[in-house]
C-alpha cells in the first residue's frame, strides 16, 4: 500500500471571471522512504496539489478526487478534528517563504515548542529538550541562544532551518517540501538539500519535493512527475526522465537548462510548444 495515493485530483477556484481549473485530473503516489519530485513552471499546479492534500486551500476552492488516501485512510472523510491530528504530525509541509510562514510576534523556541504541545504529551521540560535537539539536528548554531530569537533576527537560511525543524518535530511519515531553497544563496541551498535528504534517509519517511529546479531533481529524487497547466505531462524514474524524456514539455524543460545550450540563444519552453501549447 502506498504511503499517499491520490487519483484524478481536480481543483477549481471561484474567481471574478468565473471558475478557474488549477488542477485537471492528476495522480500521485508516494511510498515510504521514497523521494518524489514534482516539477514544472510557476502556475503548473504543484503547490495547489499539495495544499489540497493538506486541506489548506481556501473555501473558494472546489476539490474532487476519485481517491485521496494516506496509509489507507480516506483524507476526504476526515473531520476537522481528525485532520488536525494527521496534519502536522504524520504529514508535514515546509512552505515556500520561511520568514513569511513564521509568526513575527513569537520566538522561534515558542513556535517549535507549540507543534510539540499540540501533537505530543511531552512535559514542558521535555519539549524544551526536544526543541534544542531539533535545532541541533538542522544545524542551527548556538541553539540555546536561538530559543529566544525572533524570526526577523535570523537569516533566511536560518529561518528555513527552523521551518524544517518544525516540520520534522513529530517525526512525520510524509514531508512535503515546497520550493525549500527559494531565495537562498547557492551555498545555503546545497546545505538545505543535503539536510532534507539526510533527514529523509535517517527516518525512512516519504519526501515530496516541489521544485522547478531540474538540478535539484537530479540530485535528490527517485521518481519525477512533470506538470504543465494543471496536468501531468510525464512520470518516470529520475534516470529515465533525464536520459529519455517522452513528453515534449519535459524535453523543453531539459533543453532550457543552461548546460544544454548549443547556440547563442538559450531555448525557452515556448520554442517547443505548438500554437495551442503542449
From TrEMBL:
Q: In which broad location class does this protein mainly occur, judging by the first location in its UniProt entry?
A: membrane
Matches recorded under Gene3D superfamilies: P-loop containing nucleotide triphosphate hydrolases
Gene Ontology terms, MF aspect: ATP binding; ATP hydrolysis activity
Question: Which sequence ranges are marked TM in the entry?
Answer: none
Gene Ontology process terms (BP): transmembrane transport
Which branch of life, at top level?
Answer: Bacteria
Keyword vocabulary terms for this entry: ATP-binding, Cell membrane, Membrane, Nucleotide-binding, Transport
Topology in membrane = Peripheral membrane protein
Where is it located? Cell inner membrane
One GO location term (cellular component): plasma membrane
> Where does the record place the ABC transporter domain?
6-254
InterPro entries recorded:
AAA+_ATPase, ABC_Ni/Peptide_Import, ABC_transporter-like_ATP-bd, ABC_transporter-like_CS, P-loop_NTPase
For this protein, the record's PANTHER family field holds: DIPEPTIDE TRANSPORT ATP-BINDING PROTEIN DPPD, OLIGOPEPTIDE TRANSPORT ATP-BINDING PROTEIN APPD
User: What's this protein's family per the entry?
Assistant: Belongs to the ABC transporter superfamily.
Question: What is the designated name of this protein?
Answer: Dipeptide transport system ATP-binding protein
Q: Which organism is it from?
A: Roseibium suaedae
Amino acid at each position: 500500500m502506498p504511503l499517499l495515493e491520490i487519483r484524478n485530483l481536480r481543483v477549481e477556484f471561484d474567481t471574478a471571471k468565473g471558475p478557474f481549473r488549477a488542477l485537471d485530473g492528476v495522480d500521485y503516489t508516494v511510498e515510504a522512504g521514497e523521494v518524489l519530485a514534482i516539477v514544472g513552471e510557476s502556475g503548473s499546479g504543484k503547490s495547489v496539489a499539495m495544499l489540497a492534500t493538506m486541506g489548506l486551500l481556501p473555501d473558494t476552492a472546489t476539490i474532487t478526487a476519485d481517491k485521496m488516501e494516506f496509509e489507507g485512510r480516506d483524507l476526504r472523510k476526515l473531520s476537522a478534528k481528525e485532520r488536525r491530528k494527521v496534519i502536522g504530525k504524520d504529514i508535514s509541509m515546509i512552505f515556500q517563504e520561511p520568514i513569511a510562514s513564521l509568526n513575527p510576534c513569537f520566538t522561534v523556541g515558542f513556535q517549535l515548542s507549540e507543534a510539540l504541545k499540540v501533537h505530543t504529551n511531552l512535559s514542558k521540560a521535555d519539549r524544551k529538550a526536544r526543541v534544542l535537539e531539533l535545532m541541533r539536528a538542522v544545524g542551527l548554531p548556538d541553539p540555546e541562544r536561538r530559543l529566544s530569537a525572533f524570526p526577523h533576527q535570523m537569516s533566511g537560511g536560518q529561518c528555513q532551518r527552523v521551518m524544517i525543524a518544525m516540520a520534522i518535530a513529530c517525526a512525520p511519515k510524509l514531508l512535503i517540501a515546497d520550493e525549500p531553497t527559494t531565495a537562498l544563496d547557492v551555498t545555503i541551498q546545497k546545505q538545505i538539500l543535503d539536510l532534507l535528504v539526510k533527514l529523509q534517509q535517517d527516518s525512512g519517511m516519504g519526501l515530496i519535493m516541489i521544485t522547478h529546479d531540474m538540478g535539484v531533481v537530479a540530485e535528490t529524487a527517485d521518481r519525477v512527475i512533470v506538470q504543465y497547466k494543471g496536468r501531468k505531462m510525464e512520470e518516470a524514474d529520475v534516470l529515465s526522465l533525464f536520459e529519455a524524456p517522452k513528453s515534449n514539455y519535459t524535453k523543453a524543460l531539459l533543453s532550457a537548462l543552461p548546460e544544454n545550450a548549443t547556440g547563442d540563444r538559450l531555448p525557452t519552453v515556448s520554442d517547443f510548444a505548438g500554437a495551442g501549447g503542449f
